[in-house]
DNA sequence: GTGAAAGCGCTAACAA
DNA sequence: TTGTTAGCGCTTTCAC
């Protein structure tokens, strides 16, 4: 290849990769040859020689969920800034599909590490991953010491959301989104926050108003809200475990002629853009997605480049309560 | 490697790749060795040897735009079903970034082909792509004979949307989303449909009610709508060039105390899920996204596997008009 | 500071 | 049907 037009091969490699020991003169010579021949290093060959792919995988259950697509954006940006491409995949929460990604499979070499938001895999299945695969887990799992975990403090955030509803003077609070089974840890933490907020004020959460949903989407929210309204004593406030659920719930409320928040106050979780423009706009828990994304990427790359695995960390990104119309009511417009 | 535990190497390759000529007996022997050693073929080496990566790239301007994330989902599914991984990237509409993807660059070998939704590149810049790169363009560009193009008939769809507003008896129609410059072809086609619908009924589109926006998002929609309402004679109906724009516009209308659709009817474009749950729900043009995605993937893989480039095709996916509350009003609920 | 040569682990042309 | 062997194009150890 290019060394025909000048020197040798080791040198070309050095120049292209910007290594130290090259004379200005040789460097120029190589550069000229490169330009002349329109030479482009072959990534595939480089990957094989280096035993790395320069790619990381981002594996999430659903890509059309705004929370994930907003996160995805930041992950791509962060990875690219560090010279990595992002390979993405959606699992639909299917346990087999999820397992395939973290197991020692044939695709293993395709990515140097994985950022993974599990849904169908419980804690135990998660622990059974390829020990050589650098792994960062997103969401509400706790680390078992073999991977890093990045998330927000779900219990605290949920308590905060619930307290906000109680502060409004509401007393018949419902919660939509519980998932009382092994893979529903995320949901269970939120339910815990919901209960704790009540307990902290000497109140008791009404267990019959805690509704389970298989997913956190609009449809589930709409259906759960309908079920709540059919109760003899419907709630006067609802804590939804995602903004999508909240939007679905509001949809049901409005179409039944109820006013939000006058009749029923609603608060969501995730702070997706929809919630800032919907009618009414949706109060929510806003996790710092940018920080989650960059932290996850940074930890993963550290894991990738470390000869010995770094200690497993539990990383907490900050969150805040954002109050909008669905709890505060519409602000008068001139 | 594995042949130690049985036979040779060529054979292993054959077995692993499921080629024809292998005796059952040898196959079994190899299989046993593979299992025993936990052997996994090295993708990187295979890629180099085959000169292909088994990956396709999907390049879109924004990933947090529901239209793209919904599309992305279908693309991933279609590609995976055919044994391909999807590498994705977001360009933010930056011309340089976009150019880098279709030019003959060092990342070229990383993907075997590209599905590309351009935004910052005009027709001419698009034509200047690596001729060896299999390419499928999404959106409203016309092919120059070197790539396939998949989209819907934008002029017809826009005419249909506009006619729907005229059918409601509205006569002061506005349009939000025009982009009267080289890279705004998509928008211009919609504007053309808007005008044609008027002309077909002997009416004339009001040019002062055609508003340009840099992007197709909620914020732009909200601002444009505000500008329209500040006019001495505001419109009684609005055709928005995306559902996000429509949601933004509705946000402004509602917060100014106007009723949708009684005071102003609104129709969008794309049929994203938000529009089916918003308040009011949003009438829209619904492109067949699943078909767009699978068609794009199929054509791209055909292009990748063809020794001689197949003829460039203009592929039109179907669309339909979906009428919801933002034009039809709320349907009474018992 | 630069050159030569040995892999990286697979595929595929060519033989047998 | 199966074995041998020559690359794929780069990185990198080891001399010079």
TrEMBL record, chains A, B:
Gene3D superfamilies the record matches: 3.40.50.2300, lambda repressor-like DNA-binding domains
Question: This protein's superkingdom?
Answer: Bacteria
InterPro entries the UniProt entry points to: HTH_LacI, LacI/GalR-like_sensor, Lambda_DNA-bd_dom_sf, Peripla_BP_I, Peroxidases_heam-ligand_BS
Report domain HTH lacI-type positions.
1-50
Q: Which SUPFAM superfamilies match?
A: lambda repressor-like DNA-binding domains, Periplasmic binding protein-like I
Kindly state which keywords UniProt assigns to this record, in alphabetical order. DNA-binding, Transcription, Transcription regulation
Xref: CDD domains: HTH_LacI (cd01392), PBP1_LacI_sugar_binding-like (cd06267)
Q: Which GO terms describe its molecular function?
A: DNA-binding transcription factor activity; transcription cis-regulatory region binding
Name under which the protein is recorded: DNA-binding LacI/PurR family transcriptional regulator
Whose protein is this, by species?
Actinoplanes octamycinicus
Q: What is the lineage of its organism?
A: Bacteria, Bacillati, Actinomycetota, Actinomycetes, Micromonosporales
